[in-house]
């Protein structure tokens, strides 16, 4: 239903939706950086924290894109994320474990 000047009844909705999307973008980035900084603090390697964060961002983006927007990804995309996850697995397996606190002490 058009009104004067070629506008519709839903034109007022444009600005609040843009503000909502901007707020969601800011919130998601804040949560991502919070988790990334916690991962940096808890991981033994910055590479490990970076790969984990990157892989989780790709996977969550793919799942949410599929659920919300009905997006599909090409085989090349899935191949790339599989290689990233394999690299993450190699990082976890090859990183030496920290010694237990009780084993490092000498017996007196």
Automatic annotation (TrEMBL):
Keywords: Membrane, Transmembrane, Transmembrane helix
Transmembrane parts of this sequence: 15-36, 48-69, 75-93
Entry superkingdom: Eukaryota
UniProt-listed SUPFAM superfamilies: Multidrug resistance efflux transporter EmrE
InterPro entries cross-referenced by the UniProt entry: EmrE-like, TMEM42
Protein name, per record: Transmembrane protein 42
